[in-house]
Structures are given as structure tokens and as C-alpha cells.
Amino acid sequence: MTTSALKVEKATKKFPGVKALDSVSLDLQPGEIHALLGENGAGKSTLIKIITGVYRPDEGEIQIAGDLVNFTSPQQALAAGIGTVHQERNLIPHYSIAENIMLDRLPTKFGLIDRNYMRQHAKHWMGVLDLHIDPDLPVRRLSVAQMQLVEIAQALSMQSRILLLDEPTASITGNETAILFNLLRRLKDEGVATLFVSHKLEEVFELCDKVTILRDGRNACESVLIKELDKQKIVTHMIGRDEDVSDIGKRKDNLGSTKLELKNVSTARGHHRINLQVKEGEVLGIYGLVGAGRSELAKAIMGAERITGGEIRIDGKPARIKSVQDALQNWRIGYVSENRKEEGLILAHSVAKNTGITIWHRLGKVLSLFTDAMERLEIKPFVEKLNVITPSLEQSVGNLSGGNQQKVSVAKWLAAQVEILIIDEPTVGIDIRTKGYLHRLIWNLAEQGVAVLLISSDMSEMVLLADRVVVMKDMQIVGDLPNNHQYEGMSSQIMHCIHASGSEVGETVEDGVLASQGA
Amino acid sequence: MKKFNFSSLLAKADWLPILGVTVLSIIILSFIAPAFLTRTNLFVMLRILSVTAIVAMAQMIVIGLGQMNLAVGAIGGLVAILFGGMMEVYGISVPLAALIGLLIGIACGFINGALIAFTGINGFIVTLATMSIYTGLNYGITESIPFYHMPEQLIAWYDSYLGPIPNIVFIPLVTATLVALFLFRHPWGRYILAVGGNPAAAELSGISVRKTTLVAHTVSGTLGALAGVVSVARLGTAEPTIGAVWLLPSFAAPVIGGAVLAGGHVSVVGTMIAVVMILLLENGLFIARTNPYYMDFFLGLLILAAVVFNRWRTIKSEKKEAAVVIGEKV
Q1: Which of A96, B10, B12, B250 has its CA 20 to 30 A from that of A181?
Q2: Chain-centre distance of CA A113, in angstroms?
Q3: A377 inside 8 A of chain B by CB
Q4: Which candidate, A424, A409, A152, A421, places its Cα nearest to that of A290?
Q5: How far apart are CA B195 and CA B66, in angstroms?
Q6: Is A40 on the interface with B (CB under 8 A)?
Q7: What is the interface pTM, i.e. ipTM, of the complex?
Q8: Among residues of chain A, what percentage have pLDDT more than 70?
Q9: How far is residue A115's CA from residue B7's CA, in Å, rounded to a whole number?
Q10: CB of B326 less than 8 A from some CB of A
Q11: What 3-state DSSP class applies to A444?
Q12: Is there a contact between B236 and B121 (Cβ–Cβ < 8 Å)?
């Protein structure tokens, strides 16, 4: 073939506590659409940030059209002809569409911005995407889909030879997607090289020529023709299910009385008539695709979202949970957030403080005062029990690996001795060994009589751990299934629940691993 | 149980470098200016310290929360003139007037906190507005005329000794100790730093961000009021201008002392050393007979030097820690 448009060779990138990329390679040819796939935390976004000069690789090299490049800033990547649509929105809300599209090269006339030319130019690129709105509108007034299209228009207006699209279809509709795909095919014929990140496998099969898959920061496969793969093979590459599903042994079955019960619960976030029950010592799985409302339901139970109807009962008694503080201190409910960096941990604080945070209110004696030693004494057993690998309890959690951070976010609830624990996506972006460890831990908790609500998009995890699986879709419960721990049967039953309730979910891949957002 | 570990002390005590600079300054000053180490000069400095230290503590608590209290000086000024007025005009006894003064400070801080917590408006804007409100009340009441006749009892108390220790040393030390106990050993203090570190995580860990904001601003207002009362005792008059120039040192001291302006980390010891450092700068310039009008210029340089140093140290330690953790193959 010809010279690669973009070639990444053995790129490695380390962050405190984690190797985000480990010797990753990728070969993007001119005139091809190349899919980049991987689970959340597999390293896709890091790879894109390396290509676009946001990060610098610790090892490895990048070539553009055969020339070695060493970007130190995103501007250099732009100048080298790489147009990017990042996963996060990068628009300035109070600026107009035209200003956003032309921001890095505002046209001037007599030293002032040439608004006419800017408008025309923007209009042209919006037209290419079939987006017919006033280019003078401030971006903040647009819908999410329109913003997404503006960003794509911005990337196109660079007329780059290399186009990186990180989940460009995440928030646009089928019709807009079709327009975008036609355009990408046309660009392909003109020799533009496109790297396309998506969680929707249907799209990948429809659009792409080649595929590179990342798993845990490594190449699961590199620049393979898409014809050589089918959906099942791709999913296996992404989740590596064979090694993933470890045998975690048997669990003592000692279900107690009903601990938590939701009766016809509706919430301000749109949940409608939610009914579910969890017994002491039971692991109840809550499965659903993105947007099904699982985390929001968890937060409603925790008192962080408003409940507008129905009733929550704990130990058979009605429970009006007013706040998270109330949930923790009076009802003994804990919540391990799926978003451990933003919602779970205080990264700059020590392991001790992150674990002790749930028990400070009851540590002290005289005037509620307590010492570091008293805190350590209380939390140490839990940190040790969870096998948190840290140089000391004083270490900032920001410097621990993802797996150990997750152990800390679980440890703080163990220290609080909660009786109901909601665990949201416990193993996203976590290495396989720690994953197995956390799985065993969840079962241990249940064995000790804790009622566990497990939220996971990882089907194999769900089938492995849950006693029962509640299936959610569009803020409602569409199924409540006993789990027989047989992957094939269970996964098709669960997916059947989602499809049978009828709507457009079929576009998303059948294996829920791909469903959760972010990477 | 635990052996004394010098390297871990070094790692924890991020104020050691500024302590070194401070001690060095003292040594240099005592050599080049014989007037520096005289009893009179030390007392001049301690009198200023007794107020500035409390002001710095008041601001530091709100910085720990990740916010600012621009109204610290305005609260101090308002409480100062009300304290003075109560004693001069109404003949209220010193302790009772001081108590009422503190209650007013509590109310001012509570109003700040409540406005921020329940409207969700940025603390900068809220305290900017209340700064103007409290200052305006102060000038409106006094028409800019001080209360001159403070009771002898007050001034005598300020100049008295507790055992061998003069009160002016005792006041800032006790305040700093109480603040340290509150921030690091009391649940509410810990909550403030947790909210400053990550409000979303704190809320989901069972901490009420609202109540914590309320508590932090109330404590800050109380300390601002205390600084106002001590100011009146120090000056012997209740001047409306008390608090007018507190803003700069109130931020300078915590930041030089190692506080993270985004919240979550403050150092009581560091802030106290920084207060001494700022004092030495003022006093040194005075004793060295330089033009005192250059004071702000040098204070600005000191702040910049301190934050550049802190930034450099943070980057260095982050790199080191990253290397260590990966090296261990966790």
C-alpha cells in the first residue's frame, strides 16, 4: 500500500498509578475509515490525545505521511493536518456558531474580524452537514445534536487529510448520522483518512474498512480488515471474556428478610413506578443500557434525587430519606459511584481521609474531637481487608492505581458498616486481577448479610455475581429475572426484556459491555 | 507504637522551607539592624501579629472550603465600631460588649454562608456585596468618626500577662490552636476540607455541602469579629477604618503558607509562619529605613516567590510519586 497517513508505533503513556497505553500501534491509510474500539478505560481517548498533541507519549513514535512528528501542543497537530472531534464538547457557549467554527483562524479585514466572510464560510460547512440554522446563533442555544454537528463542521472546515472522530454519533439521530456517513464516504474517496471511535458496532460494520481494538491499554488487534471479523469476535477482543470470567467459587446462600423495598417509586428525574426488593444477603443486579436511569435510581434511593411518588421501605418500615447524610447515618445505605474520580474520591486527600470520611461524625468523644490515630485505628482493618496496595495510609489516593482507588471507595462504606450497599459499575477501567478481587468482595459482603444492589453494564459480571437481575429501560423496570449463572441463556433473556419492550435500542450492540458512556 | 520518622515529618511539614526563610530573615535583621531585637520593637510587631494572625485564620477556613470571604475586613470593622460604641455610648461592660460583638460577627458570617448555600451564587460575588453592605453600615453609623474613649479595663487586659506570656502572644496562639483543632480534629473542620477537595464526592459520602458552607462562613465571620475586637483593644480607639486593609494579608498569609486556593488543603502552622514573614518584611523595611510606601511592592514579590516555589514543589513531587507507584507495579 501507499505511505500511511498516520502511523502510531509502540506508544506508551503512563499516569500516576496506571499505564494508560502500553506499546500501542495503529496504521491509518489514506482513503480509509478505520474504527478504534475498546471498552471504557481501554485507552482510546488517551491514544487520541497523544495523536492530537494533548499528551506526549513516554515511549513510541508517531508518523504523519511518513514523517516522524513530535507534537508538544494541539496547535501543532492542527497545523500538521489533523482535524479532531473530541468526545467532550469543546465549544464556547456564548460565541456564535460561526465564531466557533472559525475560532482558530478568524478572518480579518482592516485588522478587524470580517464577520461577513466568517458567516459565509461557516454556512458552507454547515450546509455540507445539512444543518440549516443561523450561523449567528450563540452555541448555548443549540440542542446537543446541533452542537455535535457544529463541532463536526469545525473539524471538516479545516479540510484536514486526517480526521479523528471520537464518538461523533453519540448524541445525534439516525438521519443526521446517515448524512454524516455519506459525507465521510465522500471524503474517503477523496483520500482523507478517518479514525472513527464508536460504541455502536452496527455503525462500525456499516462504515469502516479496518479496525483496531484496545483492551486495558494494549492492542487486542491492530489494523485488521473488518471483513475478517464478526460482531462476536470483536466483542471477545474488547472484553476478553475467556480470561475475564474467573471462577469465584460458591457462595453461602443465607438470604434474610427483605431489607429494602421500592413500591411504585417515581422520581423527579423521570422514573416511573419502580418496584423492587432486596433481601439481606442478596445481590440484586440492575442491568440496562446507557440512559436507562440506573445511577439516577441509585441516587434517588440515597436521597440525592427527589422522589415524587411511591414509597421506600427499609426493614418493612417506610423510610423518608431526606439527604445522603440521612441515608448514611440513619438508614445505613452506602453508594459506590461509577464515577470514582469525580464523585467517589477526593484525589488530593490521603487514603486515611478518604476512608474515614464516612465515620468522622461518630469518631470523636469529647466535643466530637478525634485524632489521626483514632481514625487510623478504625479504618485500618478495612483498608487491610480490601488489600489496598499503598505505601502508607497518608498517600494521596490520586497516586494509586485505578483498582486500588476503587478499593478505597468501597472501604469507606465498609468502615461505615452499611447494611445496604449500592455499587455502580464497580470494575470499569480496572485490571483483571483487581476485578476478580472486587467480585469476590461483593459476594463476601452479601455473605455477611449486606443487601447489595449491583449496577453494571458488563453482562458477564452481572451473570456471574447477581442472584436476581432487574432490567431497566427508559426509567422503568422491564424485567425481573432469577439468575441461573449461565451466560448464554441469561444474556439473551435480558436482551429480550429490553427489546420486547419495544423501541430503537436494537442499534446498540447486543452485549451490554458497550453501553456505558465515556472511555 | 509509631517511631519518630524524620523523612515523613519532612514530607508532611510543607512549611519547613518558609520557616527556614523566616528564621534566616530574623538572623539577618538582628545583625544589620540593632533596633530589631529590642523589646520595644518586638512588642510593636507582636501587637500587629495579634490581629493579622486572626484575620489570616478567618480567611484560611473559607479557602479550605474552596471559596473566598472578601468580607472578613468589613465584618471586623463593623464589629469593631459596634463594640466600641456599645462601651462608649451605652456603657456596656467590656466582656458583654465583646460577646455581643462576636455574636454580630457570627450573624454576619451566617448571612454570607446562607446566601451562598441557599442561592448557589458564587461566594466571591456574595461576599463582595456583603463587604460593601457591612462597610456601608459601619460608615453610616459612625459617619467616619472613631469612638475614642475605650474603657481602661480593655486596654489593661490587652497589655496584661498570662503568667510570663504577654496576652498579645497568647491571643493568636490560642486562636491558631483552636482553629487547628477544629479543622483537623473536628468532623465539621474535616467536612470543610473534604468539600473543598471535591464537593460532589463529599456530598455522596454523606456530607451536606450546604451545611458545611454555612459552618465555614459562620466560623470565618466569628474570627473576623474577634480580630475586630482585638483591634480595638490594640489601638485603644474603635476606628471605622479597622479592617480596611486586611484583604491582601488575609489571602497572602494562607497562600504563602501552602494553602491550595481551589480548596481542600490549608496549613495552620504555615499560615502562622507566613504572617510572621509578612510582619518581618514590613518591620525590616521600616528598620532598614527604606521608603515605606514600597511595602506593597515587596509584599507582592513575596507572594509571587512563595507561590512559584509551591508550584515547583508540587510538580516535582507529583512526578516522583508517579514514578514510585508505577515502579512498584501495583
Answers
A1: A96
A2: 40
A3: no
A4: A424
A5: 8
A6: no
A7: 0.85
A8: 92
A9: 61
A10: yes
A11: helix
A12: no
HEC states along B12-56? HCCCHHHHHHHHHHHHHHHHHCCCCCCHHHHHHHHHHHHHHHHHH
Closest by CA to A5, choosing from A188, A225, A241, A186, is: A188
User: Do the beta carbons of residue A8 and residue A60 sit within 8 Å?
Assistant: yes
Q: Which amino acid is residue A248, in one-letter code?
A: I
| Contact state of B204 with A391 under an 8 Å Cβ cutoff | no
Round to whole Å and give the CA distance between A198 and A36.
7
* A281-310 per-position pLDDT tens digit: 999 999 987 678 888 999 999 998 899 999
Which chain B residue is nearest to residue A19, measuring alpha carbons?
B326
Q: Strand locations in A55-189, DSSP E?
A: 59-64, 67-69, 82-85, 108-109, 112-113, 162-166
Separation of alpha carbons A64 and A82, rounded Å: 9
Alpha helices in B164-236 (DSSP H): 167-185, 187-197, 199-204, 209-235
Q: How confident is the model at residue A243 (pLDDT cuts 50, 70, 90)?
A: very low
Interface check A332 vs B, CB under 8 A: no
CB nearest to A14's CB, from B185, B194, B322: B322
Q: Quick one: cell of A449?
A: 448479610
CA distance, residue A379 to nearest chain B CA (Å): 15
Most B-contacting residue of A361, A372, A399, A433 (CB-CB within 10 A), to test interface: A399
DSSP 3-state of B66: coil
Instruction: Return d(Cα A67, Cα A62) in angstroms, integer.
Output: 8
Given the DSSP bridges, would you call strands A451-455 and A283-287 parallel, antiparallel or unpaired? parallel
Q: How far apart are CA A142 and CA A111, in angstroms?
A: 30
Q: Is B22 on the interface with A (CB under 8 A)?
A: no
Name chain B contacts of A346, Cβ cutoff 8 Å.
Answer: 194, 197-198, 201-202, 264
**Mean of the pLDDT values across residues A426-453?**
85
A355 has a chain B CB within 8 A of its CB: no
DSSP-based three-state secondary structure for A84: strand
Contacts of A404 in chain B (CB under 8 A): 330
B260–A348: do the CB atoms touch at under 8 Å? yes
State whether A345 and B203 contact (CB < 8 Å).
Answer: no
Residue A268 main-chain phi, psi, to 5 deg: -65, -25
CB B254 within 8 A of CB B274: yes
Q: What is the mean pLDDT of residues B215-222?
A: 98
Q: What does pTM read for this prediction? A: 0.80
Q: How confident is the model at residue A505 (pLDDT cuts 50, 70, 90)?
A: very low
Note which residues in 248-307 of chain B have CB less than 8 A from chain A: 260, 264-265
* Beta carbons within 10 angstroms of residue A388's beta carbon: 23
